[in-house]
C-alpha cells in the first residue's frame, strides 16, 4: 500500500506521470484540477465560483478543495493507496491532509519557466476523460483525435498566456513554500521525497520514478 503526492508547477508533467505510475502500481490517481473541472459540470451551486477562479489562474479556497479531496480519498478504490496530482498546493492543505491520512512519498517535478510555457501551449486534452497529449512531445496517433474514443481534442480554457502567468505566480506564492515544508518533513524522516528534473523526456522521468518506488517502498 502506498500513498504518493505529485508536486510541481503548472505544466511540469504531474498528470502525465501520475497517470503512468497509476497504471504501473494499479492504484488510482486523483487530480485536483480534474475534480474541479468535473464539479463545474455537475454542481450548479459552485460551478461559477470554480470556473471564475480557475480562469483567473488563482487557487480555489483551501477549505473547498480539502473537502473535495478528502471525499475522494476515502472511497473504496483508494484502500490500497493512491497518487495525488495537484494536491496539496499550500502548507495549510498539506497539514490538513496529514491529519487525515499519512502520505509515504512526495515526487517533485522541478521545472524551468520556458519548458512550462512550451508544454502548456502545446497541450491537447480529451475533455470528457481528462486525457492529455502534447502536439509535439506526446502526440495522439491521429492529428487532433483522441486515441481511445476518436473524439476531437481541444485546449484547456486556462491554458492561455495571461492565465498561465497567474498560475505561475500562485505557484511561487503558495506552493514553493510547501516544497520547503516537505523537504523539512524528509529531514525529520516523516516522508520520502524525490526531486526530478522535469525537462527530461516523459519515459525517462517515468523510469526514474518507478526505479525509486521499487527501491524505496515496495
Ligand atoms: P491543474 O489542472 O492541476 O493544473 P496545473 O497545476 O496548472 O497543472 P497542469 O495540469 O497544467 O500541468 P501538469 O503538471 O499536470 O502537466 P501535464 O502532465 O498535463 O489545476 C487547474 C486549476 O485548478 C488551478 O490553476 C487552480 O485554479 C485549481 N486547483 C487545482 N488544484 C488545486 C489545489 N490543490 N488548491 C487550490 N486550487 C487548485 O503536462 C503538460 C503538457 O506537457 C502535456 O501536454 C504533456 O503531454 C506534456 N508533457 C508532460 N511531461 C512532459 C515531458 N517530460 N516532456 C515533454 N512534454 C511533457
Ligand atoms: Mg494536470
Give an overview of the whole structure.
The chain is an alpha/beta fold. The protein has a domain at 2-111 and 175-216: Rossmann fold (3-Layer(aba) Sandwich), CATH 3.40.50.300. The protein is 49% helix and 16% strand. The protein is built from eight helices and seven strands, in the order βαβαααβαβαββαβα. It has helices spanning 14-25, 32-42, 47-55, 62-73, 91-100, 113-122, 161-187, 202-216; strands at 2-8, 29-31, 81-85, 105-110, 123-126, 131-134, 192-197. The strands form two sheets. The chain has a five-stranded parallel beta sheet with strand order 2-3-1-4-7, sandwiched between helices. It has a two-stranded antiparallel sheet with strand order 5-6. The longest helix is centred in the C-terminal third of the chain and has 27 residues, at 161-187. The chain is globular, with a radius of gyration of 17 Å. The model has no long low-confidence stretch (mean pLDDT 95). The structure holds BIS(adenosine)-5'-pentaphosphate and magnesium ion.
